């Protein structure tokens, strides 16, 4: 009789406890699945972000995933395939270990769906994403005193350039008989045209020696594709996306963008010649298709500034003005036309200023520095910094990205900057052994 009581008692206990046990077990499995799904999603998306372009990091200190993966064209399909592969590696037990480990895999988790729901390309928001990342790459290394020097040059640049641009050599001096003109003035006249122009200046300073002959097809550049509406556009609309943040286009931020280019791209004084163009910064400033055209344009603009500054310097130098006046008076008397003296004086001062400006340009192109008011000395790169600061931010951004893409294509012809991801949003769905569904949304970016 007692045995019957025990049997009934045990049956009642088991009938009560077993459902509770299985309920607790199912809840435990579901909780473990949720944790495991989050961990697997994090592992997989972090693995995708770890596939950044090493070459871009080495050249430009920027993290981005090249979705071409070394092939002819970029494709998000490849990124999705990589994501699924990482998920499979973390949810599947291979054949060798299946019998041994399947018993211990209490969740039985498997991935049923994975998709990249949103991406941000480096070129998105009219280059804003790139600008922000470029500024972040150099903001901790900027010398604030250099900014103020460049800012001071920029504020006076227009004044100097306008004065230099209006410079015309006095034709009256050339009309005077050669016997009356001093040898020094003869030499200056011989080396000077009636009016300053880029071609004369370029040939005089460089003599064509050592000037790069590289050029690019402007129709094949990123900026040309953008103008034609042929670039990839990201679809990330997350409120925390880098695209939703304020654009870094203030004066100091723009200086840092220029500094990014100065530090990562070549110019006339650089030794590197491995890129698509040798004078990359000159391209960003001028936007022409060949190294020679870009260098000619930049050298001319810097020369005009030096010309305007040197004319002002000589006009305010009492000793030089007295020398010029004495020469002008002697020349005007020699041709029996004293009224020419003021015009000849100005012409002589201009010739002296032009000679000094040419000497300044030769120094700058040889890596030396030129003097500015306030005991400031600036080299060629500093002048490029000022010109970058004055270049409209949109042109500077897209031309800079032109150069980056062109240089990356030297080793990978299929590379496209508008195929480079800096941020990704993904949706992953899992099931466990009880067919419970778990949806994980995850966002990853390279933003600090």
SS class: alpha+beta
The radius of gyration computed from the alpha-carbon positions, rounded to a whole number of angstroms, is: 35 Å
The quaternary state of the protein chains shown equals single chain
Main sheet: strands, sense, barrel: 4 strands, antiparallel
Termini separation comes to 76 Å
Extended strand count = 6
Please mark out the parts with pLDDT under 50 across 5 or more consecutive residues, or reply none: 94-101, 244-248
Number of domains: 2
Number of helices: 17
Choose one word for the global shape: rod-shaped
How much helicity do the residues have?
55-70%
* Mean pLDDT, all residues: 83
H-E order: HHEHHEHHHHHHHHHHHEEHHEE
Beta-strand content estimate: 5-15%
Give structural notes.
- The chain is α+β, with helices and mostly antiparallel strands and about 450 residues long.
- It has two domains: about 1-120 and about 430-445, no CATH class; about 140-415, no CATH class.
- About 55% of the residues lie in helices and about 10% in strands.
- The strands form two sheets. Strands 1, 2, 5 and 6 form a four-stranded antiparallel β-sheet that branches.
- A hairpin with a 3-residue loop joins strand 3 and strand 4.
- Helix 5 (about 130-140) packs across helix 11 (about 250-265) and helix 11 (about 250-265) runs parallel beside helix 17 (about 395-410).
- The longest helix has about 50 residues, at about 1-50.
- It starts with a helix and ends with a strand.
